Amino acid sequence: MCLGIPGQVIQMLDGYGNQLALVDVAGEARKVNVGMLPEETFTAGDWVIIHMGFALEKTDAAGAAAALAGLKLVGNGDWTEP
């Protein structure tokens, strides 16, 4: 299991083979590698799910909110075992 953190693309960074984006993650600007998603294009405002500095998937605002809700749920320990 991996935890994916949502972030919103601020801008694509010049160079780096078009594989590096500046992404807002919880109010902090982070460099994120989007090279694992070569079929996608990214522009300011797009949402991504990030793990260890890599974008694992492109999503929308609803998907980002769901990912954040899941992280909060796990962080609060508000879950039950199956």
Automatic annotation (TrEMBL):
GO terms for biological process: protein maturation. InterPro entries: Hydgase_assmbl_chp_CS (IPR019812), Hydrogenase_HupF/HypC (IPR001109). It comes from the Bacteria. One of its GO terms (molecular function) is carbon dioxide binding. It holds the Pfam family HupF_HypC. Belongs to the HupF/HypC family. This is HypC/HybG/HupF family hydrogenase formation chaperone. It comes from Mycolicibacterium mucogenicum DSM 44124.
